[in-house]
Amino acid sequence: MFRMLIAVDGSEPARHALDAAARLARETAGVEVVLLNVREPLGYQVELPAYDHEAIDAAAQARQDELLEAALTQAKALGLDRAVTQGATGAAAQEIVRVAADRQVDQIVMGTRGRNALGGLLLGSVAQRVVHLAGVPVLLVR
Fold first, then answer.
1. 112: which DSSP letter?
2. Which of 6, 8, 57, 140 lies 20 to 30 A from 33 at CA?
């Protein structure tokens, strides 16, 4: 059994990553896929009533659910029949690596925004952090 974690966020690079993973899966029998979306935790820097925080958090959860459902629909259309979804909250790179370890995946597949090397050094990059932290191969797709 070969397991892949595919990071999805609704972006074009993430859709390309899902396409690339599906191409790889056609060459390997019995591939299982975890579609993961990580959302940033709700910041509490601004003074808002508790009900506003709850409404904002509920809206963020609903958006995450929509992204995961769209990714699952795309995965099924691409022939990835053994796909499940998972949502997480936290720092994206750390959560991707944590879920990959928890799910004992063999590979992480994710899109990259394609920033130049200097931009990646100055701004940081989720993809760069995942490559650095992951204990399994990471396929980056533009």
1. -
2. 57
Percent helix, strand, coil in the chain, to 5, is 50, 20, 30
All residue ranges of the chain with pLDDT < 50 are 119-124
- CB neighbours of 99 closer than 8 A, spacing ≥ 6? 5, 34, 36, 86, 88
Pair 34, 5: CB distance under 8 Å: yes
Q: Summarize pLDDT for 56-71 with one digit per residue, the tens.
A: 889 999 999 999 999 9
List Cβ neighbours of 136 (8 Å cut-off, separation of 6 or more): 100, 105, 106, 107, 108
pTM exceeds cut of 0.85: yes
The residue written with tokens 């691409």 in the block is 78
Rounded to an integer, what distance in angstroms lies between the CA atom of residue 74 and that of residue 72?
5
Residue (of 107, 83, 97) closest to 24 by Cα position: 107
Pick the closest to residue 4 from 112, 64, 92, 24 (CA basis).
24
What are phi and psi for residue 138, nearest 5 degrees? -120, 125
How far is Cα 75 from Cα 81, in angstroms, rounded to an integer? Answer: 7
